[in-house]
Amino acid sequence: MREDTMEFEGQVALVTGGSRGIGRAIALKLAAAGCDIALNYRSATREAEQVAERIAGLGRRVELFQGDVSDPDVPQAVFTGVRGSFGRLDVLVNNAGITRDELLVNQSLKDIEEVLATNLVAPMLTVQAAAPLMLRRRYGRIVNISSSAASKPGRGQSNYAAAKGGLEAFTKAMAVELASRGILVNAVAPGVINTEMTDTIRSHGEEEIMRRLLVKSYAEPETIADAVAYLASPRNTYTTGEVLHVDGGLKMA
After folding, report:
1. Which is it for the CA torsion 116, 154, 248, 199, positive or negative?
2. Lower CB density within 10 Å: C or N end of the chain?
3. In whole angstroms, what separates CA 247 from the centre of its chain?
4. Closest by alpha carbon to 193, among 215, 172, 160?
5. CA-CA distance, 150 to 82, in Å (whole number)?
6. How many domains in the chain?
7. Catalytically annotated residue among 41, 139, 160, 218
């Protein structure tokens, strides 16, 4: 990569849920553009170590932080580690997410609570923990990974849609709170992406999905990473409180 493309040189990013899929692509994209990476993951140690090896191969510093961000104690513990290892944080990407799709009448309370805890409460606690590191330097970029389900949910996605809809509202609230300190907060809402997380959705409803897509194909994780990289970059100086839909036109059907 040419030197003039290293726009994140000297910056540090934390990516949650960074061992696979979209999180992995985002971490690699930021590292390739010069960013040192704090990589959070829940349990996929081997995959996280492989991502870390690739980041190190790009000449960037990388530290792994294991922990389930749905545990209320983990976000603060992760940021204590980030502060100790890097001493700064410029970019936060809240990517960790889970699904427990089922019609509401069949959902257990556990299914509802776990989806809300991971997809909504965890990003709130993570931003709460990250903000002091950004506020002192009067600079930061926060990108929350939402979903097209927030505006165009499928059957059985009531818990997930509620969580992601809440995440988008939270994104706008944080944009209001943090803008005066140079911290921009946005969200990216992917559609159907080629990841393990969407395997079941694609296998059980491909015909319906393709009917709804204007662009008749699934996106790769790198497509989402490109969108995140712009919103997280120093080039973004005027976009905040926005939800960028990268969904092949799914929400328009």
Report:
1. positive
2. N
3. 15
4. 215
5. 31
6. 1
7. 160
Give residue 2's pLDDT. 43
CATH of the domain at 78: 3.40.50.720
218 catalytic? Reply is: no
- Report the amino acid identity of residue 251: K
The C-alpha atoms of residue 126 and residue 74 are separated, in whole angstroms, by 9
Place of tokens 């839909």: 245
Q: Residue 177 falls within a domain, yes or no?
A: yes
Q: How far apart are CA 201 and CA 246, in angstroms?
A: 17
State which residues form the domain around 102: 3-245
- pLDDT tens per residue, range 105-143: 999 999 999 999 999 999 999 999 999 999 999 999 999
Q: Is the dihedral of CA 35, 12, 92, 242 positive or negative?
A: negative
Q: Is residue 142 part of a domain?
A: yes
Q: What is d(CA 15, CA 136) in angstroms, rounded to the nearest whole number?
A: 20
What is the C-alpha to C-alpha distance for residues 152 and 85, in angstroms, rounded to an integer? 40
Q: Does some domain include residue 251?
A: no
